[in-house]
Write a structure and sequence with these properties.
By secondary structure, the protein is mostly helical. It has one domain. The chain has 7 helices and no strands. Helix 1 packs parallel to helix 3 and helix 4 runs antiparallel to helix 5. The protein starts with a helix and ends with a helix.
Length: 204
């Protein structure tokens, strides 16, 4: 329950990781990749030290940060679709699995060795996002990766928080299993209108 309460707050801060990546990759993928990780580390540290104690405070911070960040990103971060190759090279599933698993495994080891505080910080490490970026930069180039990052910012930081909020209220009432199922269904109902609301803006 405590973890569910912290998720919205962390997701709000997570937006700055994507915004940094989108801004700095204009100067090159490596600059954006490293710069965004520095920002993630900064905000992950802040999150581990100053996390709100209540779900209400967490949701308020998330709503404020999410709204401002998505609005700013949609209106100020523009993708040059002419730079995206017409044919995207698909990476094999085993490569995605190995890359993602390796990154997650490394972070788990770091967390175990460095102690509980650092373990808490690295628990929010964007392993799946990083592996996605490393794959898309090879398959579609920088601008394609920026397009993916923009979509992930709008979709992932929103859906994760909504799911966590639903779990927070459903688990004490109907248990983990049924609560998880209903949380997924509720997420689908809530996310669908949001997706169509911003879809045209995402396509630019």
């Amino acid at each position: 329950m405590i973890a569910s309460a912290i998720v919205p707050f962390s997701s709000g801060l997570y937006c700055f990781y994507f915004i940094t990546f989108l801004l700095l990759t204009k100067k090159g993928f490596s600059i954006g990749f490293i710069g965004s990780l520095i920002i993630w580390f900064l905000f992950a540290t802040i999150s581990s030290i100053y996390s709100p104690n209540s779900i209400i405070a967490s949701v308020i911070v998330w709503l404020l940060l999410e709204t401002v960040c998505i609005w700013w990103t949609v209106n100020n971060i523009h993708i040059n679709h002419s730079l995206i190759p017409k044919r995207i090279i698909s990476s094999p599933l085993w490569l995605k699995a190995i890359l993602t698993g390796s990154v997650i495994g490394l972070i788990v080891i770091i967390g175990k060795v460095a102690g509980p505080r650092w373990g808490g910080i690295f628990a929010t490490f964007p392993a799946l996002t990083i592996s996605t970026f490393l794959i898309t930069i090879k398959s579609g180039g920088v601008e394609f990766t920026r397009l993916i990052a923009k979509n992930i910012l709008i979709s992932t930081t929103t859906t994760i928080s909504i799911f966590a909020i639903l779990c927070y209220f459903l688990y004490p009432i109907i248990g983990v299993i049924l609560g998880t199922v209903l949380a997924y269904l509720g997420l689908l109902v809530i996310s669908a209108p949001f997706y169509f609301l911003v879809f045209e803006k995402i396509k630019e």
